[in-house]
């Protein structure tokens, strides 16, 4: 499955500042973050941008100087300093979620990126287990030197999460409580935490000649972000019954990753404080426009139409649409 370049252009590497023995600046990257765009109410040509990552990635810095690695428009990599920034978490403290959101005002215009647009954050009801998924993010062994080059990892949607059925989760070997999460069949490794997970819908098309539905690839949607994975002791890998254990040198990845749902990301972005901040920004922008004062603090929105154009470049051509099968004969996706 080919993917559009957009999915690599929305991500950045999350890391810490450090100096190597020679005194040169040498950042260390340990997680992934990605951009999300929320359209302005007064002008949908612009978007409020938010950097999104896993909360445990932010917490893991333990007060160290932090930042993100991003590609500039001239193609060169750069480290964007974020130390002291105010991160936002899910407003409902009774919900365990591994989501951190940062208004992207400190990300300079010189950076090259495309945010995930709002329409891709609304997943169709028929998307579910068996659909293809892919993760874009940091591969710590090969981050890129002349330019940051995110890796693409593929898999399948394994189990849909729900509010009622919480998942007993393990974050890097440390239990933090049951949480709402999707499960995907894909290996989650160091550096992938916080990465966006996209799911590609399967579309049923009735073929009159064979009198049945065939399933084709549809659009991509944001399923959520990578939280982590389970590990088990290597000696237990063939046991039929085991419980997740704390991380140890002899553990193996079970190949199932936990994904924090997009719904919780949206709820974090839509909390009252951030909503008010967006309203104030738009109000200020409008006042400057009326005073003929220009501003460069806004970003153009990478909308779904633009995304679909990129998608078509790498997607297979669909056959001409046939008349729909009568409702009583249709099979569900």
* Number of discrete domains: 1
SS-based structural class?
A: mainly beta
Q: Rounded to an integer, what's the Rg over CA atoms?
A: 21 Å
Shape: globular
Strand tally is 16
In whole angstroms, how far apart are the ends? 20 Å
Q: Helix count, per DSSP?
A: 5
H/E topology pattern:
HEEEHEEEEEEEEEEEEHHEH
Averaged pLDDT: 77
Uncertain regions: pLDDT < 50 for 5+ in a row? 296-302, 314-333
What would you say the CATH architecture is? Beta Barrel
Provide an overview of this structure.
It is a single chain. The chain has 333 residues and is mainly beta. The protein has a single domain (6-329), classed as Beta Barrel (Thrombin, subunit H), CATH 2.40.10. 14% of the residues lie in helices and 36% in strands. It has helices at residues 6-9, 55-59, 262-269, 272-290, 304-314; strands at 11-16, 28-39, 46-53, 66-71, 77-81, 100-103, 116-117, 132-137, 151-159, 167-171, 174-179, 182-185, 196-207, 212-233, 251-261, 299-300. Strands 1, 2, 3, 4, 5, 6, 7 and 16 form an eight-stranded mixed sheet that branches. It has a six-stranded antiparallel beta barrel with strand order 8-9-12-15-14-13. Strand 4 (66-71) and strand 5 (77-81) form a beta hairpin. The longest helix has 19 residues, at 272-290.
